[in-house]
Amino acid sequence: QVQLVESGGGLVQAGGSLRLSCAASGSIFRIDTMGWYRQAPGKQRELVATITSGGSTNYVDSVKGRFTISRDNAKNTVSLQMNSLKPEDTGVYYCNADRIGLATGWGYNYWGQGTQVTVSS
Asked: Average pLDDT for residues 101-105, to the nearest whole number?
């Protein structure tokens, strides 16, 4: 069984910074892609950023230049450094891990419980 646990959300003023972290636990020997998604009130969940085990990154255009995703493959963790935050960044941020190598085979598309990020104007 795989668990993803996020931390680091909170309330911050516009222009401020927050760092989100996520740790995956379980009988894991490999995670291909880890990422962050967010869901604002009344909107669909959207991709924020992803990173592969090789370090290739992908960002939604609205966060490019402000957010940085990173991971530690040995520790099965992923982080999201968020700078120059805007009110439109407000939402619940979810950690995602996809194509996980487990002792029992491959597992796909795991989610954390979410952490609230609120940016005040």
From this structure: 91
